[in-house]
Amino acid sequence: MAKLLSCVLGPRLYKIYRERDSERAPSSVPGTPTSVTNPHSSSWDTYYQPRALEKHADSILALASVFWSISYYSSPFAFFYLYRKGYLSLSKVVPFSHYAGTLLLLLAGVACLRGIGRWTNPQYRQFITILEATHRNHSAENKRQLANYNFDFRSWPVDFHWEEPSSRKESRGGPSRRGVALLRPEPLHRGTADTFLNRVKKLPCQITSYLVAHTLGRRMLYPGSVYLLQKALMPVLLQGQARLVEECHGRRAKLLACDGNEIDTMFVDRRGTAEPQGQKLVICCEGNAGFYEVGCVSTPLEAGYSVLGWNHPGFAGSTGVPFPQNEANAMDVVVQFAIHRLGFQPEDIILYAWSIGGFTATWAAMSYPDISAVILDASFDDLVPLALKVMPDSWRGLVTRTVRQHLNLNNAEQLCRYQGPVLLIRRTRDEIITTTVPEDIMSNRGNDLLLKFLQHRYPRVMAEEGLRVVRQWLEASSQLEEASIYSRWEVEEDWCLSVLRSYQAEHGPEFPWSVGEDMSADGRRQLALFLAQKHLNNFEATHCTPLPAQNFQMPWHL
Length: 558
Known about the structure:
The protein has 19 helices and twelve strands. It is α/β, with parallel strands linked by helices. Strand 5 (251-256) and strand 6 form a beta hairpin.
């Protein structure tokens, strides 16, 4: 009877992974059926085959879940319509509650029928036995057996806790349950006394900003967190996850962040291969509709690196919602997992981000300064200009205030706090992070990210002459034009290197540098072009085109 209840309340099972061209060893978990432990299959993974009763009950519950999601998103409009029609009176609401209660009882009955269907299936009984054993005992053998199944990630046991590192428990400077530290935006009106009257005056605007951010804003910024989109992408995500496990021997893990969110991760270990880059770990930060199952992890994987992918809060198996604080909390536990559980030193970790993933990558670079390098692909400097681009001009004040208070993705500000090597990849036909049209390459916010970065590190070089010549170089629409500008100013790379190395030897590596202070205008132009060319690579593609492995290069450093 207990097993039947476990089948009723258990998670949905999607796939069962098998060893290729070999039989699985008999399970060591007591009570596991032996009739299904040795399936004859040449395929490494198979879809779980539910019985008819479970299959039909699952379809009904999935349909109910979709209808509930649609009702949730349309509830404000439905509430307004019902109010106008007078359907929210007590005489109308009571019968409706009876209908709703009856429907819930019917769905509960369907769930029980699904549980009976699972109970009659030896494959599901084997799975639920292993899952229960793993929850009772987190042994390596139980986890190894559980990894052979792909199921609803909410039931996956936690593999790593944010407080697990001993240094966190002893230190008072680490993250608290309120979250890790973020850079806070400066007040819009400096010098204004924050009196009680001023706070009352600001309250309506603050309430409006909060409502916009938590309803329309968050879903526009992170469409991957919308349940209906995830439901539509589920077959693709399952296929991508199977590829990572099957072909790359990936290991899935659940991490618990300091805010209580559970983060879904996938680790591919290449340290045992002959390729030297396998000793380096690339932590991948996906875009606003990207998942590690089908995202940018494929690029460093093809290049031979060890890779750790993770999903944003609210994406696929990760819980929560993707606000900046939750994003930083998730990134913190991912880095801690890489260091303290996977055994990589910060000097062997590379941060690779695509698009909006630049926020978490630059936060980690700022917070973990010993990290080896940062690669930002199709990223931007600040969210405000991009948000203003898609909203009505009359909303400018509301949009700016909402972004600064609730959705402040200040990539450039965070990147300038990092001292290590950085490479920016600019998509020359990017249609997402341009503020006008894709053909206007100067409206690409990747340009602003590069300029702010160089102006912080080399303020004397990026004075008026240097800034002007770098803008000319960024405006070039082809490699031929870039080379023409580079040769026009007769950039001597050996001279630039000698100047930078001599400054570093005399003053140390800490940025910002005052190099170029006593230099001629021509020398500053040469240095500015040299540094811009070393920190930015162009990729002739649109925003969502996968980056080829040959374009995944380590950043330049002295």
